[in-house]
Fold these 2 entries.
Entry 1:
Amino acid sequence: MTTRLASGTTVSTSLPGRSAPNFSMRRVTRKRQYQLAQEKALTQQLLIRSNGQCEKCHEWPDWRGLSKHEIRHRSQGGDPLDPGNCLLLCGKCHSGAHGIRET
Ligand SMILES: [Zn+2]
Ligand SMILES: [Zn+2]
């Protein structure tokens, strides 16, 4: 008569095939996505306000179109989402606003 040990179970501590947890890093965070959407909406709003013209010289923009200029830059505490802090400027005026002179 042979006695068999009932301990036939093997416990594996290593889990093959499982590497690092699979979560992908988002390049664009949710917050940033929201911000971009807000800025887009604001640009639309400014376009309506400016009637498609530059808000400084009130001319139609050249090939560069209009771009949003922050009167007080966000790095200086300005609110980039406040329409009162933003101007839609033509390329020439926008360059001028940043101290770049065009001939
Ligand atoms: Zn202009
Ligand atoms: Zn600007």
Note: Strands lie at 66-70, 86-90.
Entry 2:
Amino acid sequence: MAIWNGRVLNLCILWLLVSTVLLNDADCHSWKKKLPKPRKNLVLYFHDIIYNGQNAENATSTIVAAPEGANLTILTGNNHFGNIAVFDDPITLDNNLHSPPVGRPQGFYFYDMKNTFSSWLGFTFVLNSTDYKGTITFNGADPILVKYRDISVVGGTGDLLMARGIAAINTDAYEGDVYFRLRVNITLYECYY
Ligand SMILES: *[C@@H]1O[C@H](CO)[C@@H](O)[C@H](O)[C@H]1NC(C)=O
Ligand SMILES: *[C@@H]1O[C@H](CO)[C@@H](O)[C@H](O)[C@H]1NC(C)=O
Ligand SMILES: *[C@@H]1O[C@H](CO)[C@@H](O)[C@H](O)[C@H]1NC(C)=O
Ligand SMILES: *[C@@H]1O[C@H](CO)[C@@H](O)[C@H](O)[C@H]1NC(C)=O
């Protein structure tokens, strides 16, 4: 009887050990994983010229939706809340609007807070230069007044196949409601090339 009891005790201890190991493996501690080394880093700029009724020739983005009573040539009050703009801008390697473009960011942004400047971005960099041919797709919240905003890099094609990582965005220039320039510092933790 004493031997049998000893065995049961041993089995219990073994079961405790095994279940502790299994539980530790299965719970949500994967955030403890070390971030992999960045695979690729690129810094690009893009330039957004918003249509204001007089700059049709140069405009690269346009308001396509506005709250009831507002119009599509002037961003609304209330921190532009409810405006949606679609853009097809030039991407450059430096901060000069007139530098040779290496691609186009194509997508949209909408202003999503009434009490502060905040937007949500969804766009794809369509790159076509000697360095890169392919696309990178981004999306995420853009709290505009914060100096550096991280948005997600959710995928890529071509030379940027399977791109995943983050992009730190900062507003590099801002001229009224007609022009802004964003600097995009892209850090890819994953990509195939
Ligand atoms: C368009 O851009 C050119 C070159 O920067 C500038 O000279 C011209 O005044 C702009 N036109 C409009 C309508 O903004
Ligand atoms: C939008 O509002 C501005 C300023 O009130 C006005 O000049 C412009 O004509 C309006 N545009 C349209 C399409 O209603
Ligand atoms: C990419 O650039 C090349 C060379 O300038 C051009 O022939 C080609 O049409 C461009 N492709 C796209 C998708 O814009
Ligand atoms: C881009 O971001 C990375 C990661 O945060 C940083 O190490 C690097 O210095 C930044 N590059 C530039 C040019 O700002």
Note: The chain has two domains: 1-33, 34-190.
